[in-house]
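[step 3/7] inverse_fold.run input=structure_tokens len=96
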């Protein structure tokens, strides 16, 4: 469908909504609508692989929190199960 036919099709739709508008203005507005819809379609097709890649990356991430408290002997430790980092836990200190 070329731009002239798309403009006429959208102009026909606009004529049912705005019957008092002149035919040329309806076709012009219809052409603009068709042009912007075409641009949005191209944008969606270009960024679809990136969107799919981001969804696939997020599905592979663990759903559990990395930091947990574990009691080893008589002391508490903060253990990061994602990186393996172990830090002594002191409830009075302000640490992340």
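[step 3/7] decode complete -> sequence:
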């Amino acid at each position: 469908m070329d731009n002239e036919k798309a403009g006429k099709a959208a102009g026909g739709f606009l004529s049912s909504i705005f019957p008092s508008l002149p035919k040329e203005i309806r076709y012009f507005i219809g052409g603009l609508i068709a042009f912007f819809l075409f641009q949005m379609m191209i944008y969606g097709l270009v960024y679809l692989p990136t969107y799919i890649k981001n969804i696939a990356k997020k599905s592979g991430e663990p759903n559990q929190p990395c930091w947990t408290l574990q009691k080893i002997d008589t002391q508490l430790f903060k253990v990061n199960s994602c990186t393996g980092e172990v830090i002594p836990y002191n409830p009075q200190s302000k640490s992340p």
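[step 4/7] annotate
The chain has two helices and three strands.
Residues 23-59 form the longest helix (37 residues).
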